Structures are given as structure tokens and as C-alpha cells.
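Hi Y.,

Following your request, here is the sequence exactly as I used it, all 409 residues.
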Amino acid sequence: MGGLTIERLEVLLAVAAIVALIARRLKLPYTVGLVVAGVGLGLLNVVPEVILTKELIFRLLLPPLIFEAAFFIHWKELKENFVSVLVLASAGVLVSTLVVAGLMSVLGGWSFAIAAVFGALIAATDPVSVIAMFKDLKIGGRLKLLVEAESLFNDGVAALLFSVAMVGATGGALSGGVVAITLLREVGGGIICGGLVAGVALFLAGKTDDHLVEVTFSVIAAFGAFLLADYFHCSGVLAVLVAGLLIGNLGDIGAITDHGREAVGAFWEFAAFVANSIIFLLIGVREMSLLDDFARHLPMIGLGILASLIARAIGVYGVAALLRKPENRVEMPYRHVMVWGGLKGAISLALVLGLPTNFPKREELIAVAFGVVAFSVIVQGISMPWLMAKLNLIPKPDPTAVGAVDSPS
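Below is the corresponding structure, written out as C-alpha cells. Let me know if you'd prefer a different format.
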């Protein structure tokens, strides 16, 4: 998978551990440090054969990240905010996709079909980026739930819209029936696959009190849900999300022992750390290999950044304004965080890297997508602590410190 051997994995993990130490000392967001370190690895040509591919992201790195995030989401909290999360993750992503498509088509000269593909893949706010940032800042409460859950659900929605947009861009008949069948297969199939695999894993885990076996079944559930959904051409993201939610919440009713739950949680935190590290380091490495493309497509990259920011703002502020009931309302400071904290990452890159080699403007789409991701991770990532301090969500940063701040204990 992309030349990721044991030796190269050890190099990446060693760099990641050092970056974690330095980032914490400098109070920088960890993901920013990883991307910068990845650029350094690219300059030094340390891991030249490790290539960031759709297969590497989707099959190896994404399941741990989605499963770990879903595992720690409590169903009671999700249920209380489910309407807000669902509306923002569905209508918000649809609006964002259409706004990006319109701007890239009208101002960038792309056909609307190609622009819609880009709009869908760039509309996803990646849980890799968002969750890592919130862990760094130790954000909790409703804000954490809203941002984490919305980012997880909108990844699934963005992948669905991407599938629909690809039908139109590749010359397929994009009728209402085709859209309905595609959505039904992706959503329904993903939920069924995730629920089925999680159910089997919980049943088997309930037959043992060995925490190592319980961890093993959780690993089988995470990767098995994705692979099963992928085999039937359903949404792997939704399948892993459902599996993580079920195991994280139903495991407490006897399927997983208390000691087993601690072991499962600790394992997935480490797995997410490893996946995070590899993804963001390889993003930095890939950025170096695209320098010529960046220079050639700089105006379109700038337009892509602007379009994604405008679209995210309209998608969050506009849709949140429709949530009028007190229990569903999203406070204005939270909206600001969701807009500027809508970082891009693995999902967007996996989708763009998976475009067919003969897809129109493929190289330009890849360059623009990587440019948008780099901007969001570095610029938005570094400035998020400052924004949250201005909104009084965390203590104001020490003027002598760099980047992020420590949150209150």
C-alpha cells in the first residue's frame, strides 16, 4: 500500500513522536507540526517511495480514525443533538457542495459537472483534522460533540454526493431515480453492513472476559465493516461510523467487560494516533512533490480556498439559522468555530486521488485539493486557538507562546 514498509513506518512513527513532543512544547497544533515535518521529509527525500493513495487512506488509515471517534461518542449526548448534527451534516454539506461548484464553474471556468465533483470532495470536514485539534485543546461539552459528530456524519454525506456527482461527470444519466437508488444503496447498505458486523463482534465478545480478545473483535469490526460495505459498493465511512457507535455504546450492557472497554479505548486512541501521524506526514511529503503543479495552478488554488471558505460559512450559518427550536439551536460562537474549524484532510484527498486517470482536469483537481487542505490544516489550524480564545471558549493565549494554548483543567 503505497510503499509503506515496516522500516518506513518506523521512520514515520519516530518523526511523529518527536513532532508531538516539540508541538506540545511550542503549543502548536499537532497536525500542523506533522504537515511541516512531512514537508521536511520530502525535502530530505527520506521516504520517497511512500505514496499517499486512496487505497492507503480508505483501507488502512481511515477506519481507525472514524471508529475511534465514534466509539467515544455517547449515544445520549448524540441523541440530544441529533437533529442539529443531521441537518448540518446533510443540508449543510449539500449547500456547501453547490456553492463551491457554482463558484469554481463561474469564476474558474470548469464545467459544472467537474466543479460539482470537486465541491463534493472538498465539502467534507475531516474528522482526522478536527478531532486531533480538539484533543490538543482538550475541548469538551456540547461544542466538542457538535463538531465531532457533524464532521463524522458529513464525511459520509460528502462521499454520497461525490458518488452522485461522479455519475453526472462521467456521462451517466443523472435522473431522480438514479440519485435515489445511489443514496439508498450507499446509506442503507452502509448502515446495514456496520450494524451487522458490530452485532456479530459484540455477540462474540460477550462470550469471553479476555480483554485482548475483546480488542481483537473491535479491530475486526472496524476494518470488517468497511471492507464489507466496500464489497457491496456501499458507504464504508457510514459502516465504520455505525459499528463504532454500536460497540462504543452497546458494549457497556454486558458484551464488553469494564477492563475490556478500557483496553479497547486505549488501543483505539493509539491506533488513531498512528493513523493521524501517517496521514499528515504523508500530506506534507506529497505537498513537496506537487510544488510545480502548485505554481502552475496557483490562481485556481486561491479560488478553491476562497470558495471552500465561503461555502462552509454559508453551509453552517445559513443552515444553523433554520434550527429555531431551543434544543436544536446552535449558539453563534459555536457556529464561528464550526466554520473556521471545518478543516479538510484525508477524506478529500482520498476521493480526489481516486479519480480515474482519464478524468478531465484530474491533475488540476489534485493540485487544488492539496492546496485547500494545506491551507486549512496550517492557516486555520494555527489560528483556531486564537479564535476560540477571542470567543472566550478557552483562556486567551500567552503572548509569549506560539500557536495553541493549554485549556483549563
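Residues 6-183+256-390 form a domain with the Na+/H+ antiporter like fold fold (CATH 1.20.1530.20).

Thanks again,
Q.
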